[in-house]
């Protein structure tokens, strides 16, 4: 299997980096072909500014997304959302014509053969975010609003209480 890991953290001591290393180890054990996109290391510019030219880095990322069968996205929750650098990755790389047909009611996903796993670390506990509905809201945003639109079946995993006594919900 071709496995693409998209990593969005600046800190090599982060829990997200620990998750990334574990995924790479696991991929090697399973004899997967693993590629990494490290958005901070690449100095990725997340700002969509109406550019009409597809830059070298956008084309490279799209080629990697086409190559992969499965994507793993690893990131911390910041202000209830993905980090801005990752948001910009979707804005600039998951373009109409590449990831889905267009911005209409009838848009079709163009990455239908792909699957994704999301590894989201949070400061708050899993029990807090399960009980107040926030995990469900995030599942809905990611499964329907982001990946579903591109035809990608996504599984969302939360790692709560990070930095204290980390818990996992799948
Ligand atoms: C700018 C910022 C915003 C944050 N917002 C939230 C939040 O909305 N909810 C939450 O549970 N944790 C929040 N946190 C805590 C991070 O989610 C937590 O520190 C992170 O998941 C730990 O994993 P890491 O070591 O990979 O960074 C925030 C942290 C930062 C730096």
Summarize it.
The protein has helices at residues 15-29, 56-67, 84-93, 126-131, 134-147; strands spanning 2-7, 33-38, 70-76, 115-121, 153-160, 167-169. It is of the alpha/beta class and 170 residues long.
CATH topology call: Rossmann fold
Question: How large is the share of residues in beta strands?
Answer: 15-25%
Query: With helices defined by DSSP (H or I, 4 residues minimum), what is the helix count?
Result: 5
Q: State the name of the first-level CATH class.
A: Alpha Beta
- CA-atom Rg in angstroms: 16 Å
Number of strands: 6
Biggest sheet statistics: 6 strands, mixed
Fourth-level CATH superfamily: Flavodoxin domain
- Which structural category do the helix and sheet elements fall into? alpha/beta
Hetero groups bound? flavin mononucleotide
Overall outline: globular
What is the H-and-E element order?
EHEHEHEHHEE
CATH architecture label name? 3-Layer(aba) Sandwich
**Tally of structural domains:** 1
Query: Average pLDDT across residues?
Result: 94
Helix content: 25-40%
Unreliable spans are none
Strand order of the largest sheet: 2-1-3-4-5-6
């Amino acid at each position: 299997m071709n496995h693409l890991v998209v990593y969005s953290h600046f800190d090599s001591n982060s829990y997200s980096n620990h998750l990334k290393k574990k995924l790479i180890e696991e991929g090697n054990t399973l004899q997967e072909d693993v590629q990494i996109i490290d958005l901070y290391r690449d100095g990725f510019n997340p700002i969509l500014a109406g550019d009409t030219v597809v830059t070298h880095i956008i084309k490279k990322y799209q080629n990697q997304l086409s190559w992969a069968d499965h994507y793993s996205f690893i990131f911390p929750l910041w202000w209830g959302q993905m980090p801005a650098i990752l948001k910009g990755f979707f804005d600039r790389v998951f373009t109409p014509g590449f990831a889905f047909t267009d911005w209409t009611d009838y848009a079709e996903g163009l990455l239908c053969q792909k699957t994704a796993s999301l590894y989201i670390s949070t400061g708050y506990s899993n029990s807090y975010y399960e009980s107040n509905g926030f995990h469900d809201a995030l599942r809905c945003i990611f499964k329907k609003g982001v990946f579903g639109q591109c035809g990608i079946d996504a599984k969302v995993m939360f790692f709560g209480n990070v930095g204290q006594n980390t818990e996992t919900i799948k």
